[in-house]
Design a protein that fits this description.
4 domains, five-stranded antiparallel sheet, 426 residues, 2 helices, Immunoglobulin-like, single chain, 11% helix, mainly beta
Amino acid sequence: MQKFLQAAVFFLLAISATLEAKYTERLLVQVADQNYRLIEGAEVYVYYQLNAVKGFIYSKPVLTNEKGEAEILFSNYEEIESSEDRSYTLYVKYGRNTYSTKMIAENYTGSIVPIRKVGIEVEAYLLSVRVADQNKKPLPARVTINKKTLETDATGHAYFILGPGNYTVKVEGAGIVRSEIIRLEEDTPLEIEIGLYDLSVKAIDDKGMPLVASVEVDGKGFYTGQDGTLLVRNLTNHKPQVVVGYNNTYKEFSPNLKNENELLAVFDMGKPVISELHVGVSKAGVGEVRVFAEDRGKAASGIESVLVSYEVDGVVDVVPAYVVGYNTFEAKIPAQKEGKVVSYTVRISDKEGNTVAQGGSYIVPKEERPQLNANNSTGPQSDLPLPKMNLETIVIGIGIGVLIAYGVFYYFSRRKERQMPPVPKA
């Protein structure tokens, strides 16, 4: 019925045109590409002389249908003097290119304008769009290019014949929209993936105990259960932005769900523990602080930094500590003058920012000085310390010395008497 009405309209137009027109042309234009594929959606129009007043004008563009066909009817209203007066240009615009051909209107007699068939070749290429999930399984989707929308078939494909150029391919499927820009210069297959991924999140403390934590996945909020786990299904973004929070502490993740869909968030709740702290002072007055510390817990984050601060006469400074053994750190406080009181504090932080501090103080001892002889020069020194003398010891020593001296004197006196000859009697 529709074709009958169209034929009737053309018939009436042709009759009315022949009453006044010097020529009337009815074109059936078919457009195909270099591989003989019919082109739908090409613009077809002509540039012809209407009359002496209007001159040359463009006809209204007509789009080719699914068979690549478009029909145009136009008329001239001037006296015809030669075939050049009946010349016109047929244009076909497709993609970024416009194609044209010069033509001359045909003479005819009678009331019915015959259809003149013309074929035009344009440059075009096949773009095959396939929509599938991450496992290459085809998905039902809507594909739109240049306002033309097609449904994918059972294999996940939608086919477009397009002129060379840049195109935006819009895909709607599984509740999401994907867009991709492609440059078409040859027959091109394009595969667009709409992945549906699962994400498993587990939150624990440093001792491995489960935590009820907040979880945000691409802006959408969730909570882990009492067992510390959460399963989020059918994510379309294979690299979601994930934020896990507990006790005002937040951890950010960007997992690649194509490779791994399990995420572990550990919150180190405990501070490091200082097991031993020793301080020694060298003869030069240098303080040596040695500490043994651990960040306990099977999931603990580990010790991040060890700093030692010290204060002398109200002035505070900081020195770094260095690893000198397993969980053992040492720092050296610069030499201070003898008698100075040095206060120190050891601060140890783990990778979660938990910090423990412990400190104390020491007095820099006086430096031992050598004894001087009568010539004000140092003589040989004994390694043994000199005994301390008091008044009682000195008195007893003097008494013992007197007794010894009297005994010696008495001994030698008696011996002399025995050696002397006897005195003769008178």
